[in-house]
Amino acid sequence: MKAKKIVLLIALGVLLAGFLLWAVGVALGAKTLYLQNGELTVGDQPMGGFSIGSDVSVAASSKEGAAGLPQQMQVSRLKLLPDVGDLTVQPGDGWDLSYDLRYPERLHWSVEDGTLTVEYDYPEGEYSNVSIEDTITLTFPKGLELEQMEVESGMGNVEVQGINAQRMELSGGMGDFDATGINAAQRLYVDAGMGDVDISGSFGGEVELNCGMGSVNLEVQGASREDFDYDLDVGMGSLSVEGVEASGFLGGEYKTSDGKDRSIAVDGGMGDVKISFAE
Fold first, then answer.
1. What is the DSSP letter of 84?
2. pLDDT (0 to 100) of residue 57
3. Fewer CB within 10 A of the end CB, N or C, for the chain?
4. What's the CA gap between 231 and 62, in Å, rounded?
């Protein structure tokens, strides 16, 4: 843990150094370069046509639509793999998959052995042109009971609402996680590289949250602090568990081992961790 904290301090120092260099550049009159549609602009002065070979391309406009998901399909597992874009999973009157994507032809779905898989990525060589407006919304029938839900997001926010599953695994490289009203009867696992994590729901077994950089806010519904064992570790930030504070400049730890049948483990790199309960 000491080595992890040292690495986080080094990372923070690098970020501060970068900010100072940017501030000095602005003070000395540095200009920003813009390349859009083959035109180069320095500051606010257009400089004419410009190209850098095949690595630069003009982005296509986003396209909206919906995929016709069969309403009678039997689904016990969800596997959602958006490499780019924001993902929303929400309850509704039936199955629906809607989208607003730059490359809608790269969106694929399939159902096999009870597993609904949804995938989306960019063509090779286009990741330098990532759109912040790509969105995918999966609507599932209210009352759906799943064995497992797996989300693996590369770049983008993930929002999950009101879903029930025995096991949930949510992971992402860059973006926020927001899960409200969820029920993970056996296990909830969240791995967020960079972004805030906000989760509320009921949990019957293990809860494990890993966050590299960003805050973690977990609200446990229908339980109290005494119902869980804890293994909480924050590298840099504050730590609060329903009135129990364990924090400092280099973070804090909170551990209990009372033989409970439910547990919460948090490994937070840089950011505040707060756990609360609503009986």
1. B
2. 29
3. C
4. 44
